[in-house]
Amino acid sequence: MSAAHAAGDDPLAANLLSSLSYQLANVGDRREAVLLATAAARGAGPAATATTRALLAERVAWAQARLGCPQATLRALGEVDEAYADRSPDVDPIWVYWLNRDEIDVMAGRCLTELRRPERAIGLLGKAVEAYDDTHARELALYLSWLAEAQVLAGQIDEAAAVATRAVYLSSTVTSTRGTDRIRLLRGILAPFRGTATVDEFDEQAAIALGTGADQSE
User: Fold this and answer.
1) What is the tens place of the pLDDT at every residue in 27-52?
2) Contact 69, 114 (CB under 8 A)
3) Which CATH number fits domain 101-218: 3.40.50.300, 3.40.50.720, 1.25.40.10, 1.10.1040.10?
4) What is the mean pLDDT of the chain?
């Protein structure tokens, strides 16, 4: 960040700060994550492109969702859509290349799942995962894990178990600590539904992938 400021690149400094907020939202102090994400979005300056503003607003939305603030989350997601609608890729910095409509929908779905609003989340995540094939195994496994989580919240247990089983298969083809953590989470939230054929199949595959016994709860 110091180097970015020294170079007069406020949007890059903002991106780095918001990246830290994303990490904190996942594994640290969620209130601090909101403060950092908000500061990053406000401090990006007039040089920030529309796509950059959308990315920064996404990270505000995620931090607010992790903190459990529905109104602030939905407001930030609205800002994402507004900013992205004005994008001009020709002027975007190279580090924002990956942000597209599918990624935005995935993040919105994740936020809504975090807020326990699964119906809309399922629609967004279900549509987004269709844009990816198995050559994007790491990303797709993660996205499927969030879809499965939303489906569990909606009571769609068979569908969730089937999606989770596919996520296990994809995770087994790559090395990803985050993916492993998501499989462990899914195993835990599907544990109450053991005895259902689809859940038992998932649980067996997850146990193998995690290197644990099939009778162990994660």
Assistant:
1) 999 999 999 999 999 999 999 999 99
2) no
3) 1.25.40.10
4) 94
